[in-house]
Amino acid sequence: MIETSSQLLWTLLALGLFCSVQAVRDLRRRNYPMAALAALCVLLILLVPVQTHAVKVDFPAPPSR
After folding, report:
1. What residues contact residue 21 under an 8 Å CB cut-off, 6+ apart?
2. pTM of the full predicted structure?
3. Closest by alpha carbon to 25, among 4, 47, 42, 50?
4. Euclidean distance between CA atoms 14 and 38, whole angstroms
């Protein structure tokens, strides 16, 4: 089973891809307000923080001279 954060990540990526395709489609149709809204949605989706598994690595301090 997929973890919740991973599932959220893939859902947001799919939604971002959909919105970017809609933005390109609207640009080609010269529907600029809708293209701008779709591009704004893509930016907002990509800026949503998703909790991931972070690994912290502590390096030993260099020897003092």
Report:
1. none
2. 0.67
3. 42
4. 14
Residues 33 and 23 sit within 8 Å (Cβ to Cβ): no
pLDDT, tens digit only, all 65 positions of the chain: 556 777 888 888 899 999 999 999 999 999 999 999 999 999 998 888 776 666 788 888 888 87
Supply angle C-alpha 37, 41, 42, rounded to 5: 120
Q: At 59, list the tokens.
A: 């390096």
Measured over the CA atoms of residue 44, residue 45, residue 47 and residue 49, the dihedral's sign is positive
